[in-house]
Amino acid sequence: MNKKLSLVVVILTALVLTGSALALAPMGPPTAGLKTGQFRAGLEYSYSDVDMKVEGNKLDNVTSNMIFGNLGYGIMDEWEAFVRLGFADASADNIVGSGMNFDGGFKFAWGLGTKVTFLKQENLNWGALFQMTWLKSDDIVGGTDVALDFYDMQIAVGPTWKLNDTLSIYGGPFVHLIDGSVDVKGVGNGDLREDSAVGGYIGAEAALAANTSLFGEVQVTGAGWGIGTGINFKF
């Protein structure tokens, strides 16, 4: 096996075996939903199936589960920020046509983001969302030391339409970017990128009780798809 092919195989193996945040994380409504000084605590889950590229080689059908605790804060009535802490896993079948299947366990992942409402109407608000998720991991794969350092970024713009006092629909176009590197000791470095950056999503949010809501959404890009859900409590 030549050195370049060895690098690709080790990188792809490391990507899966060390766990990954290379997934479509839940976004929720693209508009801010907190008042000044208000907090929001939530629990989120997502599942996605996404293609990506490692050293120019396409990696098909990387599936991932992500579980996060989310804490948000209202900086202003139309501007909020949030952080999330949790875990993510990843798995892939038939790596680079090798017939090998890999399943990675859950690893620590974290992220942050912000939402801004820039136009308010009677039952239709428009806003923008920006969020990032990070994972750094060291592992030994096939006797080789491997270090991963990368981030996953999503940027969305769109409306939140309030149908009634308990139900809203939201969505819009978004951009999904992946940027990072993999260092394989004694072999070299590899670049990690998205296979397709443009997508769209749609979701719904329903009030369960005072200050408590549940949301669910579907995200689709040119490289894959994801579903997300979560429950939030404002205080």
Q: Summarize the main sheet.
A: 11 strands, antiparallel
With helices defined by DSSP (H or I, 4 residues minimum), what is the helix count?
1
**Second rung of CATH, namely the architecture:** Beta Barrel
Q: What Rg do the Cα atoms give?
A: 19 Å
CATH topology: Lipocalin
Contiguous runs where pLDDT drops below 50 for at least 5 residues? 16-21
Gross geometry = elongated
Percentage beta strand: over 45%
Number of structural units classed as domains = 1
Strand-and-helix sequence, N→C?
HEEEEEEEEEEEEE
CATH homology-level superfamily: Autotransporter beta-domain
Percent helix range:
under 10%
- The total count of strands amounts to 13
Distance between the termini: 58 Å
Write up what this structure looks like:
With about 240 residues, the chain is mainly beta. The chain has one domain (about 5-235): Lipocalin. About 5% of the residues lie in helices and about 70% in strands. It is built from 1 helix and 13 strands, in the order αβββββββββββββ.
Defining key terms:
11-stranded antiparallel β-sheet, two-stranded antiparallel sheet, single chain, elongated, 235 residues, mainly beta, Lipocalin
Outline the fold blueprint:
Blueprint: H1 3-17, E1 39-54, E2 57-76, E3 79-88, E4 91-92, E5 102-103, E6 107-120, E7 124-141, E8 144-162, E9 167-184, E10 188-194, E11 198-209, E12 212-221, E13 224-234
Antiparallel strand pairs: 1-2, 1-10, 1-13, 2-3, 3-6, 4-5, 6-7, 7-8, 8-9, 9-10, 9-11, 11-12, 12-13
